[in-house]
Specification:
alpha/beta, Rossmann fold, 3-stranded mixed sheet, globular
């Protein structure tokens, strides 16, 4: 029996509710279409891993990054602008530093093909948002009106299906059949989504 390819969503604690909704929507799409993936949040992993273990947060982060690498899993980051900073004498809204750090650690372990992030469109008209310039060139999606769960879930599955077909992993035969069925409106929408 094949093991589902893991998808891990990382976010700030402020965006956890959004991460949980995205996890649930993604898992519903996975289940409804027979895809061989499983989505969890960082909070799910942390809560299930910390019981009975005397390990630091950094140990758990390292363990998870190695598990994801071994299983060829994917990491999705939700960058919401939860913090404020003064950068080059300008007041900005910024993503949580720990989310960017965790993204970087997973990026180093997994590589760019297994990573992507969603960020909010600048919803603060008088306060610019800031993403570190060292991250220029990393693929990401901007979601209007905070994080649009349905659009984000479609984008996640679209990328994973394209990547999985390329690598011949992560899809069972039913998912392969569905992915080639252009008449299926969900799959057609997912596969035709321009990334």
């Amino acid at each position: 029996m094949s093991v589902p390819t893991p998808i891990l969503i990382i976010s700030s604690s402020e965006a956890l509710q959004t991460a949980v909704a995205l996890r649930d929507r993604t898992n519903n799409l996975i289940t409804a279409n027979g895809f061989l993936f499983h989505c969890e949040t960082w909070d799910d992993f942390f809560k299930s891993s910390v019981r009975g273990r005397n390990q630091s947060f950094w140990d758990l982060l390292y363990i998870k990054s190695q598990e994801m690498k071994k299983e060829k899993g994917y990491v999705v980051a939700l960058w919401t602008f939860d913090d404020q900073a003064i950068i080059r004498e300008k007041y900005c809204k910024v993503a949580r530093g720990n989310v960017i750090l965790e993204y970087g650690l997973f990026y180093g372990a997994l590589g760019p093909d297994y990573m992507f992030y969603f960020t909010e469109v600048n919803s603060h008209p008088y306060t610019p948002t800031y993403i570190p310039t060292d991250l220029a060139g990393i693929r990401y999606d901007v979601i209007k009106d905070s994080i649009d769960i349905n659009s984000a879930a479609d984008t996640i599955l679209n990328r994973l299906l394209k990547d999985s077909r390329t690598r011949n992993s992560g899809l069972d035969s039913k998912a392969s059949a569905l992915s080639s069925d252009e008449k299926n409106p969900l799959i057609g929408n997912i596969l035709n989504y321009n990334v």
